[in-house]
Design goal:
The protein has about 260 residues and is an alpha/beta fold. The chain has a single domain, classed as Alpha/Beta hydrolase fold, catalytic domain (Rossmann fold, 3-Layer(aba) Sandwich). The protein has nine helices and eight strands. Strands 1-2-4-3-5-6-7-8 form an eight-stranded mixed sheet, with helices on both faces. Helix 2 crosses helix 3 (about 95-105). The longest helix is centred in the N-terminal third of the chain and has 15 residues, at about 70-80. The two termini are about 25 Å apart.
Length: about 260
């Protein structure tokens, strides 16, 4: 376990691999740990980082910091504190997707590419499943009682429910469509079609499902809220294809199998 401090508060993080920096940011349910399979898969090509946001995992529980502005600043502080080379690649999920998008919109020169998974493009696309949930019920509310992942089960007890409820309450009143359409960096948007927590963009925002102008949209038909765990090989191949894609890429498609090469 690695720890750094910012203003006397602890940030727990893990790092693996060498190469261009790639930072994973987790969402409302769990911690850095559910990124571990993706870190292992991409560490042959990139120096992968994952850290716990305030209120999650082994980072400090700082009630005043359970807001989007503080989380965006946390990314900047993390990069500065560890001396991470810029530009970085950001990969965020749920709450982490909002943080990654917001950081890229605010500091585009610091980011090469950004991938969002289960990004609520506006407050109405985030359901109320986690509002008022305790750590014992979070996973079942998102995945149902028939599915579970060890990467979540081992970390859920560390989540401060206040960090979940406060951040959701704030995001419920926000809209990120302008950040998406005006983004100055390549963007990959991934959704699980069976996700019951974050709904894919539809209705008046259905045009966001078009892959256009360095923005790529992919839905995984059978996935719920955690495609990086439910379809590890497909997800990791998709992410790698996006990151290494040439400038003339026009679309991304799911590939059935991908395994890490061992030299």
């Amino acid at each position: 376990m690695s720890i750094t401090t910012i203003d006397s508060q602890l940030i727990h993080y893990e790092v693996l691999g060498r190469g261009q920096p790639l930072i994973f940011i987790h969402g409302w349910v769990g911690s850095w740990r559910y990124w571990w399979p993706s870190m292992q898969a991409l560490s042959a090509h990139y120096r992968t980082f994952a850290f716990d946001l305030w209120g999650f995992g082994d980072s400090s529980k700082v009630t005043d910091a359970y807001k989007l502005e503080a989380y965006v600043e946390m990314v900047d502080q993390f990069i500065d504190k560890l001396g991470v080379a810029r530009p970085v690649i950001l990969v965020g999920h749920g709450l982490g997707a909002v943080v990654a998008l917001s950081y890229t919109a605010k500091r585009p020169d610091n980011v090469a590419k950004v991938a969002t998974i289960s990004l609520p493009v506006a407050g109405e696309f985030l359901t109320n499943k986690l509002q008022g949930a305790d750590t014992g019920s979070m996973i079942s509310r998102v995945l149902g009682r028939s599915e579970s992942f060890s990467e979540l089960d081992s970390e859920i007890r560390k989540v401060d429910p206040m960090a979940v409820s406060k951040s959701i309450e704030e995001i419920n009143d926000l809209n990120f469509v302008s950040d998406i359409t005006a983004l100055e960096r390549p963007l990959l948007m991934v959704y699980g079609r069976q996700d019951s927590l974050v709904l894919p963009p539809n209705g008046e925002y259905s045009y966001l499902q078009q892959s256009i102008n360095d923005r790529f949209y992919v839905e995984l038909d059978l996935c719920h809220h955690f495609p990086m765990l439910q379809e590890k090989a497909k997800f990791n191949r998709l992410l790698l294809d996006f990151i290494i894609a040439s400038a003339d890429l026009t679309e991304l498609t799911i590939k059935e199998y991908w395994t890490r090469r061992i030299r």
